[in-house]
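Please describe what follows:
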Amino acid sequence: MLATVKGYCEKGKIILEEKAPVQSKTDVIVTFLTDKNPQHSKRIPGAFKGKITLPNDFNEPLDDLKDYM
């Protein structure tokens, strides 16, 4: 079972803001959200122009699927 519980880390200790959904000893994985407002670089239209090519037969049926046609 996977469950998500919100909490925070303070002075090296993990403090849960909700009750854990298990009562017995259980393995956990902790993910730290270090940047609440990530700065993504802006998309540049046409940035890949001339860098990506498609083969002439791109829209042709695949040989792997010919038995199903």
Remarks:
- The chain has no helices and two strands.
- The beta strands are 7-10, 13-16.
- The radius of gyration is 24 Å.
- The chain has a mean pLDDT of 86.
